[in-house]
Amino acid sequence: MLTLLLSSFLLGTGLTSPAQASSSTASAYASQTVVQTIKIEKISDLQFGNAPQGDGPKQIAAGTSESLENASFEVTGEAGRSFFIILPFNGVVTMNWMGSEEATADARPIPVNQFRSHPSLFGSLDAQGKLRVFVGATRSALHPRQRPGQYTGQFSVTVVY
Fold first, then answer.
1. Which of 10, 27, 36, 91 sits in a 20 to 30 Å window from 100, CA-based?
2. Domain ranges of the chain
3. Residue 50: which of 68, 63, 34 has the closest Cα?
4. Residues in a beta bridge with 82
5. Sign of the C-alpha dihedral computed for residues 31, 84, 123 and 135 taken in this order
């Protein structure tokens, strides 16, 4: 049966005998390079400090080193690798009143926007596979009747090879 099928195929292709057929085979390798996982760890928080009701916007620079205000993160991974830094978008992060009593209308959320980092957008790990990333942002103006107390909000910084 196989001979009959092969003969029909060869006749249909214009080849009259198996001696006229030609074939070739090539091989390839599959490969994978495994790199060290990239990780980010918080070293310090973003600190807007104390401000009176009605205070204007406050900008904290990312800076090029640790300060009392900027946030800092330690990135570790494969030595010499470059990576992207992804910061929060505007309108995503707010600080909310942390009082033990019921929140009132005066306990308005405080938006945090215009996040920036140093290095900006991407960084490169050093020979030891480390890099410190510094983050700053802008706190919106406080309402003239903003309820006094502690306000906190969480934000994420993502790093990707």
1. 91
2. 40-160
3. 68
4. 124
5. negative
Q: pLDDT per residue over 42-58, tens digit each? A: 999 999 999 999 999 99
pTM to 2 decimal places: 0.80
- In this predicted model, what pLDDT tens digit does every residue of 9-44 receive, in sequence order? 545 555 555 568 899 999 999 999 999 999 999 999
The count of other CB atoms within 10 Å of the CB of residue 125 is: 21
Residue 159's identity, in one-letter code, is V
Closest CA relative to residue 94, chosen from 127, 140, 150, 37: 140
CATH of 40-160, one of 2.60.40, 3.30.1490, 1.10.1660, 2.30.30: 2.60.40
Whether residue 129 contacts residue 99, with contact meaning beta carbons closer than 8 Å, is answered with no
